[in-house]
Amino acid sequence: xxxxxxxxxxxxxxxxxxxxxxxxxxxxxxxxxxxxxxxxxxxxxxxxxxxxxxxxxxxxxxxxxxxxxxxxxxxxxxxxxxxxxxxxxxxxxxxxxxxxxxxxxxxxxxxxxxxxxxxxxxxxxxxxxxxxxxxxxxxxxxxxxxxxxxxxxxxxxxxxxxxxxxxxxxxxxxxxxxxxxxxxxxxxxxxxxxxxxxxxxxxxxxxxxxxxxxxxxxxxxxxxxxxxxxxxxxx
Length: 235
Hints:
Strand content: 25-35%
Distance between the termini: 137 Å
Number of strands: 8
Largest sheet: 6 strands, antiparallel
Number of domains: 2
Radius of gyration: 37 Å
Organism: Xanthobacter aminoxidans
Protein name: DotI/IcmL family type IV secretion protein
Order of helices and strands: HEEHEHHHEEEEEH
Mean pLDDT: 83
Transmembrane segments: 29-56
Helix content: 40-55%
CATH class of the largest domain: Alpha Beta
Number of helices: 6
Low-confidence stretches: 1-8, 61-66
Keywords: Membrane, Transmembrane, Transmembrane helix
Structural class: alpha+beta
């Protein structure tokens, strides 16, 4: 065999050895990567199972966080539990009693809608508008060019509270005097407004998470007026 053939034969063997080495190296690398990926997938599945168990069975979520603005983070309460103080509920009812009965013959729609949007649930708004329409109060105010205003006569009273329909509720009574005035005449009515206040989801415009779902209005009788320690008003 010539020197050239011998040299050529040696190069072929070296090339074959190099190819085998590269092949084995790639195979080991691929097996290593598959092992790492397999281990990662296995641990990921185990971790997700543990998290699911913890969330659903071990540590069920009973409270959540919400923010009313950029500076406040508050713990929220489930809707079937009370979330606000009695003082705040009374203040809400008293303020609503005055604002829903403050309007005039020219701006009644804007003023009433603003009060309803601020204090009432969607259901409560629809019910109140329906009652106003059926009683004809607004039409009378418009026809007689009246200005309506109101003041509370005595502190609000929480008459009842409990759970209904998956929500906590309160019934708050507000003794209210409503004035109907024109340029030539003025009259007033003593009414007991009973607000049904329910828990709702908190929001930036309603951070307290309560709203009025219904309201009833009944005339205050003399005996009730005496119990409230307010003077009898002649009509």
